[in-house]
Amino acid sequence: MAGIHIAEALEIPYFRGFSMPWTRTRSYPHAFAVPGRKYGGAYNYGTYVFFENLFWKAMAGQINRWRRKTLGIGATTFERMQQNKVPFLYSFSPHVVVPPLDYSDWIHVTGYWFLDEGKDYKPSKDLANFIEKARDEGKKLVYVGFGSIVIDQATKLTETVIESVLRADVRCILSKGWSDRLNHPDASKPEVPLPPEIFQIKAAPHDWLFRQIDAAVHHGGAGTTGASLRAGIPTVVKPFFGDQFFSAIRVEDLGVGIHLKKLNSSLFAKALWEATHSERMLNKARVIGEQIRSVCDSDKKPRDSSANRFTGRWCCNCHQGDVS
To answer: What is the pLDDT of residue 309?
Structure first.
């Protein structure tokens, strides 16, 4: 949010890069205002106007003091900033969030931006053996990780995951960041013992890990959602806040995954089974994965995509672009 003011002070062009829709449209609501049902174009458009005004009113005083004292420029107003006319580069796939017809020419959906950190990754022997054993036994393999979310009952969440994995009869690679937060009341308690069906990791590059599994379960963060869709595997999203709800709805609307609204062992186990056995979901996820991976030619030459009205060099295998 500070960039537009710095650009004004330096008298240089400015655009934003963002991982969630932030530009007014009638096609879908603001990522922070996703309702439980669809209310139509007027509601969708209004959510953007509402949040633009809300954010400005909450920060206007502080921003204008900073502009005067630090940047040496005069105060501004919401109207003068014309936020709905700020150029945007959106880092999600047009196959996942279709660019609306009412987007202006200065709004571009470029495709996901990936770092590909797994090219030289070597898993531990224990992790490699766990994956190999699951395959030898003919068991479906899932990933479960909700990032570093802060929750009140970390132990209960771990117990729910364990029970759900056992009921669904799958094998699980677990990234249990939710109990590793500092100053959390559960942080000093003993960890819940994990059964042999679950292997815990601290971290692994998603571009490597998601190629090893049959389905991914996560919180719906923009990067993790893009990685699981790119891998062509069904995605189960349990959102907790912010734009995660938007990701969950898009995944479910596309038929490539499940929006898990409540987290209990019964619903979770059912979601795990469906995500690893539904041929319809598996096929749709596979198609989306192929579409995302094929955004760029293998030699990464620039392409002109009529789908997003953008000419330049952007790729699902890199995070750099040459805007023309």
So the answer is: 38
Whole-model pTM?
Answer: 0.84
Secondary structure of residue 76 in the 3-state scheme:
coil
C-alpha to C-alpha distance for 161 and 144, rounded to whole angstroms: 8
d(CA 130, CA 143): 13
CA distances to 62, 64, 168, 244, 281 from 162, rounded to whole Å, are 47, 51, 10, 23, 24
What burial class does residue 206 get, using C-beta atoms within 10 Å of its C-beta: 0-12 exposed, 13-18 middle, 19+ buried? buried
96's CB contacts (< 8 A; 6+ apart) are 226, 229, 250, 254, 288, 292
The β-bridge partners of 143 are: 173, 216
Alpha helices in the chain (DSSP H): 3-10, 41-66, 78-81, 125-136, 154-168, 206-209, 222-230, 244-253, 265-277, 279-293
pLDDT score of 242: 86
As a residue count, the chain comes to 324
Q: Is 84 helix (H, G, I), strand (E, B) or coil?
A: helix
